Amino acid sequence: MILWKDRKRILGMPLTFTVYSLSEDRLFVKTGLFNLRTEEIILYRIRDISLRRSFGQRIFGVGTVHICSSDHTSPELDVKNIRHSEKVKELIHEQVEKMKMERRVRVNELIDGNNPDDEFDDGLDDGLDDAPDGEQDT
Q: Where is this region: Disordered (predicted)?
């Protein structure tokens, strides 16, 4: 299900062949007219979202949402010259947080590069042991 969709704009008009769309779990960027290319970022891998609006962008009512992720093919992505950029940034943020909660992704998994889909769990690093007091795990 597509939650949001827009085109990259020039002078506020959708004159390009770049289409951005957001589903419940991924952000897509489709580019090209004859040679089509689709790039996607899984939302739980997004680490930071920021909004950039130059003076010219503000005049034409557009902005650029800058995304930093732990994705190997697209560690940084600019969703350029889109309408309602502040609302889109917030929508992406909400979906990212929702996906992280659903997948139980912790911050150290994103930093360390661990995949939450792996069945290996290194446990919590809170200093608590499973063994009773006085006993040691071996």
A: 107-138
Task: Specify burial of residue 96 (Cβ count, 10 A radius: 0-12, 13-18, 19+).
Answer: buried
Domains by residue range for the chain, with CATH: 2-112 (2.30.29.30)
Contact 20, 36 (CB under 8 A): no
Rounded to two decimals, what is the model's pTM?
Answer: 0.73
> What are 32's two structure tokens?
């090209």
pLDDT tens digit sequence for 9-34: 998 889 899 999 999 999 999 999 99
Can you list the positions of beta strands (E) in the chain? 2-7, 18-23, 26-31, 37-42, 46-52, 62-69, 76-83
Backbone angles phi, psi at 28, to 5 degrees: -115, 145
Cα–Cα distance, 135 to 128 (Å, whole number) = 13
